[in-house]
Amino acid sequence: MDRNYNPVMRVMNKQSAKRDRPLRDRIAVINMFASWANSLAAEYWIKTISGIQDIAVSEGTVIDFIDRDMFDRRIVSRMHRMYDGIIAAIPAGNAAQTLWNAVSERLPSVAVMSMPRKEPRAFVGTDDALAIRKVMSHCAEEGHRSFVYAGLDRESYAAIRKQAFLNSLPKNAAGRTVNYRHLYEKHGPYAPDRAAEALLDDIRARPVDAVVFESDFFASRFIKHADRSGLSIPRDIAVAGFNDMPERPLPVALTTIRHDGISIGRTAARMLFAQIRGNGGTGTALIEPALIIRRSSLKNSLGGESGDAFKHFVEARIREWHPYPEMIRSLPSTIGISRTQFSRRFSHVFGKSFVAYVNDVRIASAARSLAGSDEGITSIAMNTGFNNHTNFMKFFRRSYGCTPGEYRMRERTKVASKEHHNS
To answer: Which of 81, 67, 119, 128 is nearest to 97 (CA)?
Structure first.
């Protein structure tokens, strides 16, 4: 994708009004958080766009992408003539909110990522409260008992995450919150580094077991400063973030929350088209995120050479991660050992190779989907972690002695026979 491509300006030059275009829907997707080029580097936004495109293609709809450099009063005044609806990510700034209010009042619209100050007719985002509960539950299981929640942002999700942290503190655990948003006024782009330094001083004065960060970006700055100061993560302090940023290399693999951008995009598009068609599409939809456990928060799971602790941790991760090959490959680094050490230890504890065990879990998951749904076989293969259809067929036949299609037919025959017998 060309980073210099400007689809909106192309549309504006060719078509000045909605009546001049073909008789099919045209929608605008707006990202006021970043420029076009920077948007392409944000995995969450790219996945959200992909989800929107999935639905738009099925609807035969044209999409124009608008970034913060393009979204101004000039284009806002024309959007109701150019577009049938908009999906937008709008930050908390006054100027952005004013423009959003102006355009969303005149068009079917869905807000994503961050809730605007004026409640929109439709919003789709991550269930931030559930995400924080997942982080805190994991930290409690790892044996952490004192926490600090560190914030740096002013977006609507910041307050939600902070309150969820306070509500999710484990029984008999100590917790406090800190916020360094004010540092932006003094330090501008250097505020995250100044905040990381201030937090390190705070923790030295009042030690805690774990820090839960409002974002991976803030966590990444803290980890780098902690590493330079000789503070070991997770031995001296555990760290968890939010907004998985795998493209940002860190000294220690970071436990975090991963947004389901695809589902957010698809849900937002469905709600927008429902509004355009006059079939509802209003309200709030919160999408469940995934907890991505990595080395930065592990305590009990890495404590010593206990085979039981290793087995419990690895089993849980394989059950959760088996649909995602890249995450399965990251297991050794998550635990903090080499691939060779991991393979040797896995074989000793489980009595079979890591690859064989993962394939068994994937095939069992595929079998459940075949028996309990009408999902296509190729889709099931992909959704259980098999990127190669031939391998899926081979492993399935090896486990069940038949093809996936034959297995589905056999299981449905069993169910029909049982229902007939019971009647």
So the answer is: 119
DSSP 372-396: H----HHHHHHHTT---HHHHHHHH
- The H or E element that residue 319 is part of is helix 307-321
Whether the model clears a pTM of 0.85, i.e. scores above it, the answer is no
Cβ proximity of 151 and 214 under 8 Å: yes
Locate all alpha helices (DSSP H) within 60-107, ordered by sequence.
73-82, 94-104
Question: N- to C-terminal Cα distance for the chain?
Answer: 59
* Residues paired with 109 in a beta bridge: 86
Cβ distance 13 to 70 under 8 Å? Answer: no
Interaxial angle between packed helices 94-104 and 73-82, expressed in degrees from 0 to 180 and rounded to the nearest 10: 20
State residue 21's pLDDT score.
44
In angstroms, the CA 100 to CA 110 distance is 11
Task: Determine how many CB atoms are found less than 10 A away from the CB of residue 145.
Answer: 16
Residue 13's pLDDT band (cuts 50, 70, 90): very low
pLDDT in tens, 204-256: 999 999 999 998 888 988 998 998 888 888 888 999 999 886 656 566 778 99
Q: CB under 8 Å to 284, separation ≥6 — which residues?
A: 122, 123, 124
Above 60 in pLDDT, residue 364? yes
Residue 84 is given by DSSP the state: S
Contacts of 196 (CB under 8 A, 6+ apart): 218, 221, 222, 224, 225, 226
Residue carrying structure tokens 């093809």: 403
Rg (alpha carbons) of the chain, rounded to whole number = 24
CB 170 within 8 A of CB 133: no
CB 32 within 8 A of CB 96: yes
Q: Is the pLDDT of residue 319 over 90?
A: no
290-296-298-304 Cα dihedral, nearest 10 degrees: 150
Can you read off the two tokens belonging to residue 334? 């998550």
Q: Which amino acid is at 273?
A: F
